[in-house]
């Protein structure tokens, strides 16, 4: 059985379902996910909201019957709430209510291109505004309870810009392999950024605002476990890849030129955002991450306004820390949960949660 990371009460059904979970190296893990994990998922409700520009967004909510607070999950690129079932169960076993959003253009939310496989966004600020609207939609449920953030990869960039520019309810945040800079191999970073900018210019001249894949990008392809660089856990990898086969509508290909251009601009804003975030942040850095680069994460922590912000290197981990094999994932999750416990009741921000304001970049476009 795997360690359930210091759950408070073994008497809850959520903890009992976790106690029955085999190790991820065990063939029985797939049966557990199809039975007890699915039983938990039957308690999760899926809801929708419309963004300010009429994009339909889907989100999943689990309300704990004896909730001790909320954890909000901001997923990474291409992801859907379905991927976070195991993590949501683990948070439920800790007594938390949980909600997670399918960002625009991915998961079950509306696509932003005529080609549904395009990983596209017009302005990165749209992700941030959507996240604000999502939190406001949850406000009646959250009420006066504590609220904390857990974000992954691109979702971390979205969440950081949100926390920097909007009044928010979070007392702390955990960022898993945050997208603050990306590996650009085989090109040096300066060359890769130049190529993106040139590609963006040519795309504008030839196709106007029509989304197009960046050089070498393509539609979704089912990569076998032996060729993946996301996780060492074969069972977890095959589990979430099976979801993409079962729900073809959530499949997403590579990023468009516009997505890359917008992401470069967003990542460039994150060091300044670190100065504006007034809550403690834990950055989980994947030691063997082939997707995002470590140095910008260190810069972010170094520029953070809060003295309790820190970085923890997760030894041996690929990019998907929370989908890793138990020996890597277990200690990382335990660290994250301990951080959430320590900072659950941090002092609130100076600004009111109920009075949202737009970030400066977004204001110029409205």
UniProtKB/TrEMBL annotation:
<feature type="domain" description="Serine aminopeptidase S33">
    <location>
        <begin position="66"/>
        <end position="326"/>
    </location>
</feature>
<protein>
    <submittedName>
        <fullName>Lysophospholipase</fullName>
    </submittedName>
</protein>
<dbReference type="Pfam" id="PF12146">
    <property type="entry name" value="Hydrolase_4"/>
</dbReference>
<dbReference type="InterPro" id="IPR051044">
    <property type="entry name" value="MAG_DAG_Lipase"/>
</dbReference>
<dbReference type="InterPro" id="IPR022742">
    <property type="entry name" value="Hydrolase_4"/>
</dbReference>
<dbReference type="InterPro" id="IPR029058">
    <property type="entry name" value="AB_hydrolase_fold"/>
</dbReference>
